[in-house]
Amino acid sequence: MLRRQDHQDDQDHQHLRDLQDRPRPHAETPIDRRHFARLSIASIAAAVAGRSFAASPSSSPPPTAELPGQPPSDGTLRIVHMNDWHVCPERRSVEGSAMAIEAATSGSRRPDLLLTGGDLIFDSFATTRSRAEEQWRLFKELMASSPVRVEHCLGNHDLWGWDREKSGASGDERDYGMQKALDELGLASSWRSFDLGAWHFVVLDSVVSDGGKGYRGRISPPQREWLVADLAANRLPVLVVSHIPILSLTPLTWDRDYDRGDHGRVSGSEMHLDGPALHRLFREDGRVRLCLSGHMHLEDRCEVDGIAYCCDGAVSGAWWKADPDYSLPGFAELELRPDGTFERRIRRTGWVNA
Ligand SMILES: [Fe+2]
């Protein structure tokens, strides 16, 4: 099984392949798929959490509504960043995800926003269309159980078919690549921005092709052009969310051959290749306070020139397996104040991977 010391450029996919290829102990698949198909997400969530979720988003309060018993608002937003769900029919991932939603939304004050952070389904990159669609169905049912507003950021495992050999895609399909995820989630674009409360939110699409069947972390030229204009038109403090970290300390925790000068050799599949350029843009803008990411299934926080870069672990932990080299299932909870300051803490979902 791949470990951090065995790291390769395509670690994320190699890791998934290793996990998929491993014989699964009986205890890891307690729900057979025919039985699973008859269960509703709400019933699974209720079984996990001991309570019921709202049946649909339409019955939920508006995302910034005050809830009964909640202290008067001082304009502080409360959001949760929940990335790397990797939802699939196996590994009890739906139960674990339902527990995560429960943990994130059941406190004395509900979040105003759930940012999903990418890698929403287990894998669509090297997966047949029907298998990808089965995973999307489960993920969308989970999201329908969220009692708060959801905004999606997409990751490398959400785009369909770039590994054509395994996916069976030709590359000529209308929904090849990220378009399938956009169709599934009803999104017009994989990058966008919006204002909520006193903050401006920028959602980036981190994933570009490496020219083969792999990917690299970077924003595309049209996205960069849009981002420059978007930041120039904004006057609010900014939170940026990308799936792949723009800057992160987590790649430096992999064992590398440092005696041979590998200190600076961080792969473009681990961190944005245009990270330094994006950091300069953010620094010059002066309003970007916080950049959130996932992808690494590890947690960190570093600050450069007053801008915080936070990698927020994974809802799935180590892809719904027990592996001490990765974070336990968790998410980030943030309070964003109108003056641009914030508090961030990592919370565990309570789910324990077998
Ligand atoms: Fe992931």
Question: Order of helices and strands, N to C?
Answer: HHHEHEHEHHEEEEHEHEEEEE
- Structural domain count: 1
> What is the fold named in CATH at topology level?
Purple Acid Phosphatase, chain A, domain 2
Number of H- or I-type helical stretches? 9
Q: Please state the CA-atom Rg, rounded to the nearest Å.
A: 19 Å
Helical residue percent? 25-40%
Q: Tell me the strand percentage band.
A: 15-25%
Rough outline: globular
Given as residue ranges, the uncertain stretches (5+ residues, pLDDT < 50) are 5-39, 47-72
Please report the total strand number as a whole number: 13
What is the CATH superfamily? Metallo-dependent phosphatases
**How widely separated are the two ends?**
16 Å
Average pLDDT over all residues: 84
CATH-derived architecture = 4-Layer Sandwich
Instruction: Give the class from helix and strand content and strand pairing.
Output: alpha/beta
The biggest beta sheet reads:
6 strands, mixed
Ligand inventory reads: fe (ii) ion
Strands of the widest sheet, in order across it, are 4-5-8-9-11-10
The level-1 CATH class: Alpha Beta
Structural descriptors:
single chain, 354 residues, alpha/beta, Purple Acid Phosphatase, chain A, domain 2, 5-stranded mixed β-sheet, 9 helices, 13 strands, 18% strand, binds fe (ii) ion
